[in-house]
Structures are given as C-alpha cells and as structure tokens.
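Dear colleagues,

I hope this message finds you well. In preparation for our joint manuscript, I am sending the Periplasmic solute-binding protein (Mycolicibacterium chitae) sequence together with its predicted structure, so that both groups work from identical material. I would be grateful if you could confirm receipt.
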Amino acid sequence: MQVPKAVRWALGVTCVAVLVVAAGIDANQSGSGADARAKLTLIAPAAAGGGWDLVARESQQALRSAGIVNNVQVVNVPGAAGTIGLSQMSRLEGDPTTMMVTGTVMLGGIARNESQIDLSDLTPIARLAEDFDVVAVPADSPFRTIDELVEAWRADPEAMPIGGGSAGGVDHMIAAQLAREAGIDPGQLRYAAYAGGGELTINLLSTAPGTPGVGISGYNDFRDMLTEGRLRALMVVAPERLEGLDVPTAVEAGYPEVDIVNWRGLVAPAGIDRAAQDELIAITTEMVDTEHWKNVVDRNRWNETVLTGDEFGKFLRQEQQRVNGILQDLGLA
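The corresponding structure tokens are as follows:
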C-alpha cells in the first residue's frame, strides 16, 4: 500500500526528533563522563519559535556566555502540548546531562491526554518565571475594550471563534474562564487551537473566512504585532499591568476569576541521584543570576519566580491537581 507523502513526512520528522535526542544523550554521556557542565542538552517540547523554545534558546545563551556549561545544545520535540517531549524524557532515566523545559501547558496536555506519565515521574530542577497571556484583536477590529468584545460574544457565542495555543492549554483555559465569567456556557466556546503564537498571529491577521477575530496568547507571541500597531490588546491576565502595555488586567476589567498564569521551568529525567540533581540545580541557579538572563526576564515582561528541588516538586504536584480541577470544571477534560 502506498503511504501518503504527508504521512511519510510526519513520520520522518518524528523519527528524526527521536534520533536527534538519542544521539545528543549518547554524545553527552560518552564524551564528558556524564558531566552536565561539559555538555548539556535542553529539550524544548515544542516547535522552534514558541515559548518553550524561547526559554531553551535563552537558557542556552546564558549558560554559554557566562561559561557555566561548555557545550549546550537545544533539541525540539514538538507535539501534543509537550507530552511527546515528556514521553521522550521518560525514556532517558538516569541521564544527568539533559533537562526539559516545561510549564502550565504541559499540565493541561497531561490532563487531557490522560497520559500515563506526569511531571511527578521526573526529577524537579527549577521553576524559572511566569509568563502572562494577553487577549488581543486585529487593529481593524470593532472591539476597543474587553467589555465590547464580551457583549458581542454573549449575544452569539458560536459566531465568535477564539484562537489560541494547544487545546487544554493556558490560552484555552483562559478563554473558557472568560466565557464563564461573562455568563457564557464554556461548552459553547468555539476554540481554534494553533501550534504556536506565530501561526495564531497569521490567522488573526488573515481575512480568510472562518479565521478567528480574537486571539489569546503569551505577550511575547503578540509583542511585535502590538508594537507595530497591527494588533490591539484588550486585557492582560497578570497580577498587575505589564510595563509598556496600557491595558487593564483581568481583575481591573472585572473578571477576577480569569487567573491562569503560564509558568516556565526545568525538569530532568527520573533516576538521577541527589548529587546530579543538586548539580543541575546549581547550574540553573547560576544561570538565572547572569546578566543575560536578567535582561531576558525584563525584555519578555516575565515575573521571575525561582523555586528549586523538592519545593518545586511539591509545586508540580499541587499545580497538576489544580489544572486537572480547572479543566474538569470547565468541561475541557
């Protein structure tokens, strides 16, 4: 039977990702005596250009420029809200030279996909920072405020598709929370999931029929378009207004229950010993203290919330339970 070209391509991409990860791990272990400061692999469980990839690439630069790690490579393993990358990590048990970027979106993927693996199965290293979502519309949208948007949405929920990232992820949960706060049944939410902020932005700016006229994503995904005036922000889901973005927070806008925040963190494979965990924590702690990383936090309007080791592990367990509850409550899991 002839296998369609698209299927062959997809299988090829998956196989290459798996082989690249495996090759990187083998090189690390054989070439450096399993020394994370000699050679370290960072897995970004998403395609290039997204939020997790940004964290991985900026971490790579900070570690290199400060001489904390001699050789740092980033490997992208995209798909299924990060759970494909999670599956790859589960196969690297005992490897002390690999870390994976993770965050709230992956918790949603775990809950929705009923994954047999969750983050408590891995070794917690550190939570790094929080990243905040923005509700935005194209510059030519008739909606000037979040209240105007909600009024039109409430009048005909199914006529207003809302675009965002992975199904069950932060953007989806925020859309469902906003719907419920606006008196709209979350079951009526027309959510259009995209692979990342770049794809979402392209569709927001498109005039093609059926594309969403409202988007929810991280500030950094929209930043350039907001600066250029091609998108207009209506609300930010953050504890306080973001510098340089003169739009109300969800609390200021009257939607205090819209409160999902996308944190970013690092985990290592299961089965590494305490000394190896402590070394990765030390590497990460040195990284967040570099000038490069501090500039990254400022530039991306992140809120630095460093939490390491066992305390981070406790946070992961509690956060997974919270996300599970939110998704179930909203009918998304």
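For the figure legend, we might mention the following. Confidence is low (pLDDT under 50) at residues 1-20, 23-33. The first strand starts at residue 39 and ends at 44.

With kind regards,
E.M.
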